[in-house]
Automatic annotation (TrEMBL):
<protein>
    <submittedName>
        <fullName>TetR family transcriptional regulator</fullName>
    </submittedName>
</protein>
<dbReference type="GO" id="GO:0003700">
    <property type="term" value="F:DNA-binding transcription factor activity"/>
</dbReference>
<dbReference type="GO" id="GO:0000976">
    <property type="term" value="F:transcription cis-regulatory region binding"/>
</dbReference>
<dbReference type="InterPro" id="IPR023772">
    <property type="entry name" value="DNA-bd_HTH_TetR-type_CS"/>
</dbReference>
<dbReference type="Pfam" id="PF00440">
    <property type="entry name" value="TetR_N"/>
</dbReference>
<dbReference type="InterPro" id="IPR001647">
    <property type="entry name" value="HTH_TetR"/>
</dbReference>
<dbReference type="InterPro" id="IPR050109">
    <property type="entry name" value="HTH-type_TetR-like_transc_reg"/>
</dbReference>
<feature type="compositionally biased region" description="Polar residues">
    <location>
        <begin position="10"/>
        <end position="19"/>
    </location>
</feature>
<keyword id="KW-0804">Transcription</keyword>
<dbReference type="InterPro" id="IPR009057">
    <property type="entry name" value="Homeodomain-like_sf"/>
</dbReference>
<feature type="DNA-binding region" description="H-T-H motif">
    <location>
        <begin position="51"/>
        <end position="70"/>
    </location>
</feature>
<dbReference type="InterPro" id="IPR036271">
    <property type="entry name" value="Tet_transcr_reg_TetR-rel_C_sf"/>
</dbReference>
<keyword id="KW-0238">DNA-binding</keyword>
<feature type="region of interest" description="Disordered">
    <location>
        <begin position="1"/>
        <end position="25"/>
    </location>
</feature>
<feature type="domain" description="HTH tetR-type">
    <location>
        <begin position="28"/>
        <end position="88"/>
    </location>
</feature>
<keyword id="KW-0805">Transcription regulation</keyword>
Length: 224
């Protein structure tokens, strides 16, 4: 039972109990460890063949420890996706913040480039995400991470394009269509790289940046 296992996965043997901050840190570290194991197993075995037992073995814990931290495989997968995107988002945000106030051309360069830079160092995560996005389904059979789940991302990209239009940097166009198109191009960039690992991901990101800048910039505006 949960009460008999502490967050570190060790039996409760009556020894000193961790303080609340210590317990929270132990739980956070353990969850992250299990999530990393899930990423590795899914990337190697595929989503359909990745079992909780295999993930537990990879993490060096029992299935009971996983059950302590996650309600089941579905929650584990959802938290895995969240962790990957939280870290990716933090990386991109740090690159954007370092640039300071930027126009759309610089934003496209940093945004697309930093996505490619981060994932280039986390190929296993990308493979695992591909497995999850194409196979993880809800109880009614719908893809858990379909188009609808990307609404907040589309809205953010749309806002960036509208801001560029308001500043006069960008021509008139449907910002939602451009937002969806940009995300699709980024997704395809990673999909192609996952199949062709020798492909120059950084160069692809630069070409994508140029493509969307030329497609969106106001007529007569010099390249940045």
């Amino acid at each position: 039972m949960r009460s008999e296992i502490d967050p570190s996965g060790q039996p409760d043997n009556g020894e000193s109990t961790p303080t609340e901050p210590e317990r929270s840190l132990i739980e956070k570290v353990r969850r992250a460890q299990i999530i990393e194991a899930a990423i590795d197993v899914i990337a190697v075995r595929g989503f359909a063949k990745a079992s909780m037992a295999q993930i537990a073995e990879r993490a060096g814990v029992s299935k009971g420890v996983i059950s302590y931290h996650f309600a089941g495989k579905n929650e584990l997968i959802e938290r895995t996706v969240e962790q990957i995107y939280d870290r990716l988002g933090a990386f991109v945000a740090s690159r954007l913040a370092a640039e300071g106030e930027t126009g759309t051309a610089a934003w496209l360069r940093i945004y697309i480039g930093s996505l490619a830079e981060h994932m280039a160092d986390h190929r296993t995560q990308l493979i695992a995400l591909g497995e999850i996005f194409t196979q993880f389904r809800t109880e009614n059979g719908e893809l858990r991470y379909g188009i609808a789940s990307s609404e907040s991302l589309f809205a953010h990209l749309e806002e960036v394009f509208r801001a560029g239009q308001q500043r006069g940097e960008l021509r008139a166009f449907d910002a939602r269509v451009m937002a969806v198109s940009l995300q699709a191009a980024i997704d395809d960039m990673f999909a192609y790289w996952s199949v062709h690992p020798d492909h120059d991901l950084a160069a692809h990101a630069r070409e994508l940046t140029d493509l969307f800048w030329h497609a969106t910039r106001a007529d007569g505006r010099a390249d940045s």
